[in-house]
Each structure stands twice: as structure tokens, then as C-alpha cells.
Amino acid sequence: MSATGPDTAGQGPVRIVALVARREITTRLRTKAFAFGTLAIVAGIAIYVLLINALFSDSETTAIGVSGQATHIASQLEASANELGLEADVTTLASAEQGRSQVDSGELDAAVSGAASDLEVVAESELDERLHAALTGITQQQVLRAALAQAGVDDPDAVLGEANAAELDVTTLEPADPEEGQRLAVGAIMAFLLFFGISTYGAYVAQGVVEEKSSRVVEILLAAVRPWQLLLGKVAGLGLVGLIQLVIIAGLGLVMATASGVLTVSDVAYATFAWGVVWYVLGFFLYASVFAGAGSLVSRQEDMQSVVTPVTMILVLGFVVGINVTMADPGGTTAAVMSLVPFFAPMLMPGRIAASDVTGWEIALAAGLTVLMILVLTWLGGKIYRNAVLHMGSRLKLAEALRPSKV
Amino acid sequence: MDTNTLNVVELCKRYGDVTALDRVSFAVRPGELFGFVGSNGAGKTTAMRIILGVLAADSGEVRVGHAPITPGMRARIGYMPEERGLYPKMAVLDQLVYLAQLHGCSADDAHTRTERWLARMDLRERRHDEVQKLSLGNQQRVQLAAALVHDPDVLVLDEPFSGLDPVAVDVMSAVLREKAAAGVPVVFSSHQLDLVERLCDRVGIIRDGQMVAQGAVDELTSAASSTLRVVAPEAPSGWASHLTGVRVLEEVDSQTVLQLEPSTDEQAVLRAALETGRVTEFSKQRPSLTELFRNVVTEGSQQ
């Protein structure tokens, strides 16, 4: 009977793995969860982009109203606000009262009245720091000019000009990065997408393993294919679906953010996108065999949560702590160390690469450690899976599943 | 020995202190229907799972012809596990095509065969339905189709008749006969001994992990102790009690019921009866497989 079968397609392991993977992909892509999930996240990113866009265009100019004696400082205010990086739009008002009511209604950001030496400012909740500085400067100059004149200085303006011209000579050791905010945002979004992708599709692996066990179909499957072929096919198939979703979401997000002008650091974003794909693959393979091993310990869907939760907790912990540490100080030691730990690296490293300058050896070390851990966990998870997948009934203890001669 | 003969050689399997299989051997030749009977927990399922490679034996071997079985050969077996199972949310057609492909069929081939079995099982209209939406009877049909869709070279079916309605039992019987006629070795286990007796060329009775009887149903029943009914009106009471290899089961009026050991010649008993005078009735009754099975199993529990 060895080769007497009328079929010619054969039993090559590559073909078997591909068949299993294809079933996972077509089954998963057909679900409503995939379409709606992708759509929901893309919509979420679109709304975020639009919101940022609206906020940015709103706060581009600061509307200031001047009334009474303060009308004299209108041009001076505009100039010194500009100097401090604030685009001010100064309008003249009929009265201080009108200013107050317009600030209240949100038409104005601030209303200024009173003499130059004794300005009164009305703002809604707080005064923009730069506007505060500009107004204080004007007041101080006014007071100074009066004092100089009183002291008998012939040309107070010349003295003031001289004083204004005096400048500090500042040397910055770590030049401020005007794009840091954007880089942090890109890094944070990528970290979230990786966390979401790895935890969702990892859980699907566990779910798939339990489904095959609870429906008992696994025995028919394992009569035809080897356990490692079934497991690898499942992991590869689900991993690919997760990758497709990540590429769709991140790609559309990138296009939307760049097109709307929210994102100006497109080279950082593209690099993060590429790194995200690489780390997704590493992270998914790291966690997939753990999820598969965990899933194989139980025989019923109802028991799945109890074995999957510990794995998910590691992911949640790594993401929540990691993202906070990284966002606070992407170049700091804690962030650097966390991004080297194999369980966290896949979620944190791309974010760190986006938000700060990560050296090549750090990336290489993190990737190397992760690959090592993948090898260890795949061996361990595969062993547990092989021993536990045909065990029906009560939940299997980890130690029992690891015993060599269980099956 | 035929190259397609399924040979199970000296299989042993222990679970802790429990011996599930103790040097179990049997052979199923091409075209032969082999019935595997035994009480629950006797080791039938364990043996079948080892044949399929789903379980590893502690020692012993499964061979096809003379060569040890390979994963490629196992994929050419049609298997129905005791615990039925299919993907509940997968459509009937997709499921059968997928299983056929896993067993080595090309995509075209898998579709052709699936369509043929769907027609045979009267499931064509349900082909796009999820398995979980089918009635239990129809699910059983899909399960049988799943075992047969890749046109297997060997059939190993664990309790294929359990849970089937009478019509499905007929379909299943016909399919098994047909596959055997096509030269496929067929092994199946069942508790329905009348069915086994009717269908099988040979049977194996397993008890506590040991194969205790094996052979053609005729051989086994004729080899087993049979009963003899003798009506000799003039015979004195106790006329048969001195005969060797004979046990008197019952003696009422002129009728005597005797149990013969397998080696006892019933003609000697007849001569002894004739010596007492007239013999008006003399009939030998072979035990049915059910009785044989009961005897074999009871012998075991007495030990």
C-alpha cells in the first residue's frame, strides 16, 4: 500500500503545513471579527488623526483682544509674542467688558486692558506661558522706561535696547528635538498595535488548539499528520493573518497621518513600520508556542481562560509598564533594559527605536535573545502540546504534560 | 504473506500499573473483515490508536506486509475514532475536502471524491452547512465519509455502528463489505456481536489486554464446547455421567442435555446412547458468538 494510492499530491511536510495554515487563514479571514476588528481600529486611528489635526489647526493662532490704554501696545504685543513662538492675532475691542465676555464665549484666548505699566489680563482658565512672558516683558519695560526717565537718563530707549540686545550664550549638550512628540506618538501606536496583534492572535492559537481538542477532531487529524505539522501550520496561518491585519492597520494609519499633515516625520514612521513587522513576527512566534502549549492542557472551551490568562498577563504587564517607562524617558536605563527582555522586546523595541536613538548592538542583542527564547519556548511548548493534545478530560498539570513518556 | 496485510505484532502498552495491552497480535489480510470484540476497557481502542500512530506502544510493532508502518502509510488508513469529532463550524464540503487533502489527495481529486461521498451519503443538499447544524444521524454520515473520502488502503473503525440508526447500519455494513471486496483489510470493533458474526470473516476477542481467541467465526464456535441434546426414552438415569469429556447439564425425563469439551467426539456419545436402547433425537448446537464471548469473558473473571 506504500505508494498504491491513486493520489499523487503526497504527504510532504511542507505541503501538510501549508494545508493546515491555509485552513486557518481562510477560516479566520471569513470571520466577522476580522473585518470588523480591522475596520474598528482603522476608524479609531482615523478619528485620532482628525482630532489631532483639528487641535493643531485650532491652536495655531492665539486670539487676543486689547481695549482701552492697552490698544497702544497692540503691535508691540504681536511682535514680542511672535518672538516667543506664539502666533498672535490682536484685535482692538470697544471695552474691557466686551473682552471679558468674548473670552468667556471662547472667541478670544485672552483680553488685555489697562495701562502698559499695569496690564490686566483676562483668560479662560489659564494664560498661555508665552503670552504671559510677552505681557510681563512689556510691563517691565514700561516700568523700567519710567524709572530710567525719572533717574535722568537722556535716552531711556537706547538703554533698554542695549539691555534687550544682551543675550546668553547657550551651548546645549542634548539639543531639543522638535519632532520628539511625533516620534513618541508613532512609537506608542506601534507598541499598542504589536501588543494587540500578539495577544489577539496568540489567544487565537490557544483557542484553535482547544477547539480541536474539545471537538475531538484532533484525533482524526493526528492520524494523518504529525503533531508538529499541525501546530506549525496553525501558528504560521494565524501569524500570517495577524501580520496582514497589522500591515493593513499600520499602513492605512501611516497614509492617513502623512496625507493629513499630522505626521511630518515620515522617515521615522516608515522605519517604525518596517521594524514593527519584524518584531511582530518575532513576538508572535515567541508567544504562539506558549499559547499553544497552554491551550493543549485543557479539553473544554470553558477551561481555556484559566490557562491563557497567565500568558496574557505577561503581555499586559510588559505593555503597560513598558509603554509608560518608554514614553517617560525612551533613552533611559529602565526602558533600555526592558526592551532587551525577550518577553517584552517585541512590544517595546520598535517604539524605542522610533522615540530615541537605539544603537545597532542593542537591537541585535534584543533580537538575538528573542530568537534564543523562541527556540527554547518552541521546544517546550511543542513538547507540552505533543504530550497533552490527545489527553481528554480534566485539565492536565504542567508537570504531567512535561513528563517524557506521557503518550 | 500479502504485501497489504495489516500485521499487529506483540503490542504492549502500560498506563502506570494498568496493563492496557499485553502482547497483542493479529493480522488482517486484504479483503478480510476482522471484528474486534471485547468488553469496555479491554484494550480495543488502545490497539487501534497505536495502529494509527496516535498513541505509541511500549513495545511491539505494526507492519504492513513485512515493513514497519510509516507515517505515509498511516495517512492511507481510513480511521474512525471512538470519540467522534469534526470541526463544528466548518462546512461539510470544506471539511471533507480538507481531510482528503491532509491524507494526500490533490485538490481536484479531493473535490471529486468528496462530491461522490456526499452523493452516496445523501448529503448533497447539506454540503455548505456547518457540521454542528446537522442532525446527529447526518453528522455520523459525514464522519463515515471523512474516514473513507481518501479511498483508504486499510480501514480501522472504532465502534462504527454505535449510535447509528438502522438505515445507517445497513449503509455502513454495505460500505464495509464493499471495501473488503475491493481488497482492503478492514478492522472494526463493535459490541453488536450479531453484526460482527454476520459481517466478519474473522474475529479477535480481547480480554484485559490479551487476545484470548482469534479465528474465523466458524472455527471459534466449533472449537468451543458445544451442547448436545439427546432423547433416549429407555436410558437409565445417569447413563452419560461416566463418559469422558462430557458434562451433564440437565436430565429431565428422557431428555438429557450434555456439554461437550471441544475435543470430544459426539459419535462416541451417540454410540453410548444407542447402547441404552432407542434414540429418538440427537442434536448438536454450536454456541453463537455472543455465547462464546460470554464464556470467554466469564472465564477471565473467574480467574
TrEMBL record, chain A:
<feature type="transmembrane region" description="Helical">
    <location>
        <begin position="33"/>
        <end position="56"/>
    </location>
</feature>
<feature type="transmembrane region" description="Helical">
    <location>
        <begin position="307"/>
        <end position="327"/>
    </location>
</feature>
<dbReference type="InterPro" id="IPR051449">
    <property type="entry name" value="ABC-2_transporter_component"/>
</dbReference>
<keyword id="KW-1003">Cell membrane</keyword>
<dbReference type="GO" id="GO:0140359">
    <property type="term" value="F:ABC-type transporter activity"/>
</dbReference>
<feature type="transmembrane region" description="Helical">
    <location>
        <begin position="235"/>
        <end position="257"/>
    </location>
</feature>
<dbReference type="Pfam" id="PF12698">
    <property type="entry name" value="ABC2_membrane_3"/>
</dbReference>
<feature type="domain" description="ABC-2 type transporter transmembrane">
    <location>
        <begin position="41"/>
        <end position="381"/>
    </location>
</feature>
<keyword id="KW-0812">Transmembrane</keyword>
<keyword id="KW-0472">Membrane</keyword>
<protein>
    <submittedName>
        <fullName>ABC-2 type transport system permease protein</fullName>
    </submittedName>
</protein>
<feature type="transmembrane region" description="Helical">
    <location>
        <begin position="184"/>
        <end position="206"/>
    </location>
</feature>
<feature type="transmembrane region" description="Helical">
    <location>
        <begin position="363"/>
        <end position="382"/>
    </location>
</feature>
<dbReference type="GO" id="GO:0005886">
    <property type="term" value="C:plasma membrane"/>
</dbReference>
<keyword id="KW-1133">Transmembrane helix</keyword>
<feature type="transmembrane region" description="Helical">
    <location>
        <begin position="277"/>
        <end position="298"/>
    </location>
</feature>
<dbReference type="InterPro" id="IPR013525">
    <property type="entry name" value="ABC2_TM"/>
</dbReference>
TrEMBL record, chain B:
<protein>
    <submittedName>
        <fullName>ABC-2 type transport system ATP-binding protein</fullName>
    </submittedName>
</protein>
<dbReference type="Pfam" id="PF13732">
    <property type="entry name" value="DrrA1-3_C"/>
</dbReference>
<dbReference type="InterPro" id="IPR027417">
    <property type="entry name" value="P-loop_NTPase"/>
</dbReference>
<dbReference type="InterPro" id="IPR003593">
    <property type="entry name" value="AAA+_ATPase"/>
</dbReference>
<feature type="domain" description="ABC transporter">
    <location>
        <begin position="6"/>
        <end position="233"/>
    </location>
</feature>
<comment type="similarity">
    <text>Belongs to the ABC transporter superfamily.</text>
</comment>
<dbReference type="Pfam" id="PF00005">
    <property type="entry name" value="ABC_tran"/>
</dbReference>
<dbReference type="InterPro" id="IPR003439">
    <property type="entry name" value="ABC_transporter-like_ATP-bd"/>
</dbReference>
<keyword id="KW-0813">Transport</keyword>
<dbReference type="GO" id="GO:0005524">
    <property type="term" value="F:ATP binding"/>
</dbReference>
<dbReference type="GO" id="GO:0016887">
    <property type="term" value="F:ATP hydrolysis activity"/>
</dbReference>
<dbReference type="InterPro" id="IPR017871">
    <property type="entry name" value="ABC_transporter-like_CS"/>
</dbReference>
<keyword id="KW-0067">ATP-binding</keyword>
<dbReference type="InterPro" id="IPR025302">
    <property type="entry name" value="DrrA1/2-like_C"/>
</dbReference>
<keyword id="KW-0547">Nucleotide-binding</keyword>
